[in-house]
Amino acid sequence: MDAITTVLVAMLGGALRVSTPFLFVSLGECLTERAGRINLGNEGVMVFGAMIAYATSYETGSPWLGVLVAAGCGMLIGGLHGLVCGMRGVNDVAMGIAIMLAGTGLAFFFGKPYVQPSAPLLPNIPLGGWADSPQLQNALAVSPLFFLGLAGAFAMAWMFRATRMGLRIRIVGESEDAARALGLPVERMRFLATAAGSGLAGIGGAFLSLCYPASWNEGLSSGQGLMAVALVVFARWNPVHCITAALLFGAAGALGPSLQTIGITWGYYLFYAAPYAVTLAILVATVQPGRTLKGMPGELSIGR
Amino acid sequence: MTTAISVEAIGIDKRFGGFTALDAVSLKVAKGSMHFLLGENGAGKSTLVKCLLGYYRPDAGSFLVDGREVEISRPADADALGLGMVYQHFTLVPAMTVAENLVMSRADVPAVINWAQERVALDAFMRRMPFQVPLDAEVGSLAAGERQKTEILKQLYLERRLLVLDEPTSVLTPQEAEEMLGLVRGLAHSGAITAIVISHKLKEVAKFADEVTVLRRGRRTGGGPAPVLTPADMTAMMIGEPQAPSEPERLGAPEPAPRLELRGVTTVGDQGRAGLEIGSLAVRPREIVGIAGVSGNGQATLVEVLGGQRAPSGGQVLVEGAPYDGSRDLAQARAVRVLPEEPLRNGCVPRMSVTENLNLRGFDRDAGGARCFWLDRGGMVARARRLIGGYRVRAPSAEVPIGVLSGGNVQRCVLARELDGEVRLLIVANPCFGLDVKAVAEVRARIMAARNAGAAVLLVSEDFDEILELADRILVMHGGRVVHETPGPGADAQSIGAHMLGSH
Question: Which of A112, B386, B415, B423 has its CA 20 to 30 A from that of B409?
């Protein structure tokens, strides 16, 4: 296998792995923002989700239970954010930063005992059985959570299009006046959307500790929760486009490690910065001065 | 189709604290009729219909629907009786399609919406209607007239039998307004609905009303069958004086050399809306150039460019022959003044006091026009007092934040500030929005006085009558371009309206 193929295969595998947490957290952020609220706290939710999933898996021996507990804790933390933001005069960006710091801090505090021990991990689905090359087999060992995320994205798109709940979430996010005229409980719906969104972010965190990189330590999340905000902008608040965005970011994130496999070791940190460079480049390329973003929910506080 | 209902209000009282909004108001609306509710701002029209629709609870009085007394204590009660309202501000969700908006307005939306089935039902519904809107269009992409139609369709879709329309024509072109009121009257006379229209436009009343009720300061001051009432009668009932305020006098002719000139000014478009593309536009001293157009066709952007809130992407803005970018120094040097749209947002600092806001134009200059470092508090207070008195601004005190004043008073404040001192170029956008008849006459007289004193005036207005009354020359904007020009006096409203809608 030549060097380029090796890099591409490694990037494919990397993209499938690295994209999954991006996918979950951006889906969660998408759901929350479509209801008209921003949740920067998802970064904290992810870190806490990673810790609690790992801890649960270690204590009970069931990684799937870990995923569930991470989702549940995510919903609790997101619910707190939703509840506080529902009060008068609370700024959701400031509150999101508080939640982010609190979630990270709590995870580090409770997670200390779990840095050393190794917990049972989520098994991958080997899709590469047909291939001869071990690299390809390795690249195509895909986590079931990835498929769950794909299904979630399409389900969310369907929900926004064809369910009462989805259309109500859109109304609440687009125009509070219209929502009130229809008698919709604006605050309650935002609260629920924030909680559910953070639940998804929690699953993204569980992926970090139970699938890839598959360990719990304090440097686990590197801002995926924050970059989700940019991803959602890139995806134009469309859940299906979140898949594309996550895969692209995943591939960019896999660039550094892939180059290492063929012995390119210079510029290691530079390549690790690729997802952030891509974030910047995409935001610059897709946003034009003097124009509002198409697809942006009207009630989003960055848009007002 | 549904069938219309009759409604009667008997002796409705409504007080807010010590303020009596409605004082024993009675109203009788016949089945299948078009009933106009006339009155100035604050006369109680909106309060009355809000009582009828269950948003307010009257302190006394009762409502009869089809002759039977009904209890309306919540909006849901009004819904159940088939009473619906089309608001002045739209309640449709701009980012959703017409079909989505219609379906979601229903009370019984199923948990999972079967769009194929809904489409069949919606298409069948549309075929029964006297007018159509495209079901798959996003509401945000519709023109104001289409949106208004969609609001009415929504009420019919909900099988409402009585519609209240709150100043439905305020955002429409003359054609759209005529068409829309004609359609509503057609629906009423066919017996499908009864319509109550809130308005202060006497022309509409003369043309479309079956019956009229006039309110002033919370009391019914008159009414009756529309053909019996003359405009003078109705004006007298509305403002308590028999004479409508006279039109301000136009003195002197425009000077030849332009004071404001735009050459090839362009801006970037946004969200499917075209940017500005103005080949040439000139305003001369002692001339009012009126810009007519349906809202959203670039007028607001034009005012932003002239006010320095937005940089053009190309072209030149010249004031007195020299380039002008709206900066503070240039505005002060050339005596350019701007009354922007939404003056509280675009022309005020809401949390600063009335006094401070009234001095925003000149607080940094001393009497001789030189820059000063220390503020002259005494001079600021004196100027504020003079302007508040001269423009009859009603404020609890000059030291309250300007944001607490009513819209009309904010408008007066900004107008007072902008017209104070030497004015060589005046840009005004919708100067009479939300003012009552007397205040409107006063504001228009002041704009005309500024013109007569030699100012060049660019008047952007959605009120077509205002432009006809004030402008020496009328330009029509459509899609960011100036598409039509005509002298003001004797202008043909029909042809201007056609250009506003884009047929040229």
Answer: B423
